[in-house]
Amino acid sequence: MTVDLMNPAVPAGAYADLVAERRTLTAAHRAWTPADGPTPSLYLAHGAPPLLDDPVWLRQLHDWSLSMPKPRGVVVVSAHWENAPLAVAATDAAAPLFYDFGGFHPAYYRLRYPSPDSSDLARRVVGALPQGTEVHQHVARGLDHGAFIPMMAMYPAADVPVLQVSMPSLRPEELLALGRRLRSLRAEGYLVVGSGFLTHWMGGFATGAPLDVLPAFNAEFDAWAAAGLDAGDVDALADFRRAPGVAYAHRTVEHYVPLFVALGAADDAGAPARTVIEGTQLTNSKRSVQLT
């Protein structure tokens, strides 16, 4: 059955089904222990509210989380928060979410994701940075949709602390450096996530392009990026402004560059990345990868 992601019969109904159907699996999810070794780092496509109406993608994200021990916490760098100096979002338990999207059904603005207090994780993040690094805390800014929507799918019980950290720059080298600083957290059982979208063209809504097909420029960019990820070629991936299709696939680059946080946090940024999720949603590639 075809699902109209922009006009679902029950907004977030597929998500409600996921929570109900997988309650037992979620409850049995084994927690990380030191014997597991470092967690991986991830780059994932996060989606807007329609992700919560996509049963296939929801299950892909939840299956991904179940393939790893449940982390002690998650550090998320989202495409939707650029702030310099570096900043962390609200850390108190059940902080209100930041609904940074418009034009959707009112139900999406009532979503809740009451994740636990992340103050201890915030202290660990600050401790991993060079001494004297200026870090602001935005106590009124909860998780934005680049953080809370994928976490709702991966950890639907909201039992994992989630800390959002800003992108202090869009420059790959600076985001690689941030990832390297966060790398030590993986050995403590924390997951480091760059949240973006491997292509990010929203023109399909205006042009009437089929939303379940990658336009040629998105397909070209996706294939180019996949080749770089498979080869572990960080230099090529950082030279994305010369990639095929980039003029349309990324008219602005904030959804691509969180990849470099994940690459920097990996033990070997030059090792091949493992594609865990691929496919198309709303004309874009939802390719998501895991690094160790």
Structure description:
With 292 residues, this protein is of the alpha/beta class. The chain has helices spanning 13-21, 23-27, 55-66, 119-128, 145-154, 172-186, 204-207, 216-231, 234-238, 246-249, 259-265, and strands at 41-45, 73-82, 87-89, 136-138, 162-167, 190-196, 274-277, 280-281, 284-285, 288-291. The termini are far apart. Helix 6 crosses helix 11. The strands form 3 sheets. Strands 5-2-6-1-10-7 form a 6-stranded mixed sheet, sandwiched between helices. The chain has a two-stranded parallel sheet with strand order 3-4. Strands 8-9 form a two-stranded antiparallel ribbon. It contains 11 helices and 10 strands. The mean pLDDT is 96. 33% of the residues lie in helices and 16% in strands.
Pick out its properties.
292 residues, alpha/beta, 6-stranded mixed beta sheet, two-stranded parallel ribbon, 11 helices, 33% helix, globular
Give the secondary structure arrangement, pairings included.
Layout: H1 13-21, H2 23-27, E1 41-45, H3 55-66, E2 73-82, E3 87-89, H4 119-128, E4 136-138, H5 145-154, E5 162-167, H6 172-186, E6 190-196, H7 204-207, H8 216-231, H9 234-238, H10 246-249, H11 259-265, E7 274-277, E8 280-281, E9 284-285, E10 288-291
Q: Given the helix and strand composition, which structural class is it?
A: alpha/beta
Beta content:
15-25%
Order of helices and strands: HHEHEEHEHEHEHHHHHEEEE
Tell how many strands the DSSP assignment holds.
10
